[in-house]
């Protein structure tokens, strides 16, 4: 009789970690290929369409970078939270709350202030909005031991309905012919775009700089050391005198604030007014979870991971049009990859063996 045993791996090389990641991605793509077959689509043709739609043309590549910008910001913030094993599933609502705060500043202060002043104020307001929304589940966990997965997930729905309430109620513009939108932001509050594209360069530069700062913070500072210790062994962290409450609150300020800035970038760079939640965000808060996992919770690698998944989003739009597949195809693609990435992470940290009853 055989029995499955699971033991901790004492050490695994960088090459072994990379190999496990590659195998997890390959297995995920194999399963996705099977799903394409069930839909009556040639998997190789579908993968080729996705790659050509996102990276095969200059237009597709520029759209990929556009969608990568919020994924970089949110993914970096989630990497910090996940590093401490605080499972923030609410980045979608933190993005929306940042968009709300940033829009309010832009609409009320923008007409009287020049661009070099109002734009930083909007990003600061977005950071505050996202951080505020991220602190709520942190306080609930610290004070009442409420699971952060549940609280952050539920806050997504609350924020989405609150945003809808604003645009159909007190913030609804009388100039939009009855549509549920706010007034347009003043020109001083709109972000400049890279010529011939929708890439808002200020947010892109901000995202790249933020990833460098987060990487240094996580791996070269005392705060980063505390974050990693809390994630690896909370009991050891408390024994070492690490302030668990302070560190947890700071983690969610950073994670929520990064998502909030992504919301400001989407509104000020692309839409120029506040509208329905699914218009402001194409599910970036959820996709960024997979981005952070693929990057192995390293903000520096988040940049490449975000570009990869942004390519899937853009390529997914292409196969919807050319192959007639439903919009949920991209969600299935991302969800399947996430499952296999988590499985790969499990096998990286654990050794699974089949032993006979006698050996056990």
Uncertain regions spanning at least 5 consecutive residues? none
Structural class: mainly alpha
- Characterize the biggest β-sheet: 2 strands, antiparallel
What level of helicity do the residues show? over 70%
Please, what is the oligomeric state?
single chain
Features:
72% helix, ABC transporter permease, two-stranded antiparallel sheet, 360 residues, transmembrane, transmembrane transporter activity, 14 helices
Report on the structure:
- The chain is mostly helical and 360 residues long.
- The chain has a domain at 69-296.
- The protein has 14 helices and 2 strands; from the N terminus they run E-H-H-H-H-H-H-H-H-H-H-H-H-H-H-E.
- It has a two-stranded antiparallel ribbon.
Write the layout of secondary structure elements.
Blueprint: E1 2-8, H1 14-38, H2 43-55, H3 58-83, H4 91-109, H5 115-144, H6 148-168, H7 201-220, H8 222-232, H9 234-239, H10 244-271, H11 277-280, H12 284-294, H13 299-323, H14 328-349, E2 350-356
Antiparallel strand pairs: 1-2
Quick structural summary:
This protein is mainly α and 360 residues long. It is built from 14 helices and two strands; from the N terminus they run E-H-H-H-H-H-H-H-H-H-H-H-H-H-H-E.
